[in-house]
UniProtKB/TrEMBL annotation:
Family matches, as PANTHER family: THIOL:DISULFIDE INTERCHANGE PROTEIN DSBE
Domain Thioredoxin, first and last residues per copy: 72-213
Organism: Mycolicibacterium pulveris (Mycobacterium pulveris)
Pfam family, one: Redoxin
Coiled-coil stretches noted in the UniProt entry, renumbered to this chain: none
GO molecular function list: oxidoreductase activity
Protein location: Cell envelope
Keywords in alphabetical order: Cytochrome c-type biogenesis, Disulfide bond, Redox-active center, Signal-anchor, Transmembrane
Signal peptide from the UniProt entry: none
Annotated stretches, region: Disordered: 28-71
Name this protein carries in UniProt: Membrane protein
Residue stretches of biased makeup (Basic and acidic residues): 40-49
One GO term (biological process): cytochrome complex assembly
Length: 216
């Protein structure tokens, strides 16, 4: 075998070995991925996201509290789903928390660039809409620390549920895209599913308000 050929083969072996090592590292590290995990292996949060580890990021994010139980049983599709409120770690019965409320659910993940661009618009929409609408964000990745730090960076203090297994999206049959927005009427029925991003609060209002009876 010529020396140049042997050198080429050696380089290829090293590259393959490095690729395998990198693949293994990404598979073990909950932070390394930049996209969705296999739903069959997903968890609500990483093991390292303990209450102690989350205390600092929670203080920085300073999120609004998640909704308390409303009137009625809430959306039927969401009954039986209990998730953590990212702001304080309290467990939330999702259906009960949404019962009797007109709700805009915004599904996102910390690594999603369009989500980060849209979240401030969601916060502005909530400010304009006032108490007649509840905007609740749903973080769909196991890395809760990264979610809190992203919200702190953006200055978005909307209440947030930690849903690494994407239970809400599955229950409401939301397309597998992010961001996505689900509009729920006060009676718990789905008014609209919007698998798209929004540039500003005006665009959100134009898409959401007609479906919940808010005049333009």
């Amino acid at each position: 075998m010529r020396s140049s050929t042997r050198w080429t083969v050696a380089v290829m072996v090293v590259l393959v070995a490095l690729g395998v090592a990198l693949w293994a590292e990404l598979g073990d590290d909950g932070d390394a991925g930049t996209g969705p995990k296999d739903p069959g292996t997903a968890r609500d949060r990483r093991d390292v996201d303990t209450p102690e580890a989350l205390a600092g990021p929670r203080a920085r994010a300073d999120l609004a509290p998640c909704p308390t139980p409303g009137v009625g049983e809430g959306p039927e599709a969401l009954r039986g789903i209990t998730l953590e409120c990212a702001g304080d770690g309290a467990m939330v019965d999702v259906a009960q928390a949404l019962a009797g409320r007109t709700v805009v659910l915004n599904l996102w993940a910390y690594w999603c660039a369009p989500c980060a661009a849209e979240l401030p618009a969601m916060a502005e929409y909530q400010r304009r809409a006032g108490p007649q609408v509840t905007v609740l964000t749903v973080h769909q990745d196991e890395n809760e620390t990264a979610a809190l730090l992203r919200l702190a960076e953006l200055g978005v203090r909307l209440p947030t549920l930690q849903d690494g297994r994407r239970l809400i999206a599955a229950a409401l049959r939301v397309p597998n895209v992010m961001p996505a927005t689900v509009v729920l009427r006060a009676d718990g029925t789905v008014a609209d599913v919007l698998p798209r991003s929004f540039d500003n609060a005006d665009d959100i209002a134009a898409a959401v308000d007609p479906s919940i009876g808010v005049p333009g």
